[in-house]
Amino acid sequence: MFSGTRPFEYKTVVALLFSGIFHLIALLLVFLAFSDFFSGLWNPEIEMVTHVIKSINNLIIALAMYELGVGVGKEYTSDVAGESIFVSVRRTISRFVGTVCIALVLEALIMIIKYSQLELAGNLYYPVAILVACALLLASLGVFLALTRRVCEEDQLSCNIQHQSASATQGSAAESSAAAQPARA
User: How many of the other CB atoms lie within 10 Å of CB of 34?
Assistant: First the structure.
């Protein structure tokens, strides 16, 4: 993770710490989901559907925590040459908001199934509100991506030009030192 040319940075250590915490929580939630599921198999007093729903909820939250950990770890520890911070932030936000939207839609569908099984049609306002909120979140993400597209394209183009000029400078320096070597001999 740390290259020989990169100095010790406080923000990198803190980012790795938070990334590790998020990954640990994700693993804990996966373990909890399997524990709930298998306890439902051996405990016939409680409906199996309840255990399945709890397990799915825990797995969805675990996925969101995992994505958050990956995003935090990548944003603050990445040393990708030529990659713009704008491009990286756009990609991370898109992936995280997509995961959150999937989690929200699955949660709403689970609530709809649960309320229909328990004949609580009056409570269907809650999952519908979750679906509307998810639609607004996706629309907001689309607006964000549309508004930042030009900035990212311009920034990426300038990064590519800088990267190409740096590699051309290194290439010409290597050629001139190689040409100077035989002249000395």
Answer: 13
Residue 34's domain comprises 8-79
- What CA–CA distance (Å, rounded) separates 175 from 181? 10
Do 85 and 154 belong together in one domain?
A: yes
Q: What single-letter amino acid sits at 124?
A: L
Check residue 6 and report its DSSP letter. Answer: S
Give me 47's structure tokens: 């409906």
Residue 60 inside a domain? The answer is yes
Q: Where are the alpha helices (DSSP H) in 43-124?
A: 48-77, 85-117
The whole-model pTM stands at 0.62
Cα of 28 vs its chain's centroid, Å: 18
Looking at the structure, tell me whether residues 58 and 90 fall in a common domain.
no
Kindly give the confidence (pLDDT) of every residue in the chain, 185 residues in length, as a single tens digit, with 9 standing for 90 and above: 445 555 567 878 888 899 999 999 999 999 999 998 888 888 777 777 778 878 888 888 898 888 888 878 877 776 655 566 777 778 878 888 888 888 888 888 888 888 887 788 788 889 999 999 999 999 999 999 998 888 777 766 666 666 666 566 665 555 555 555 555 54
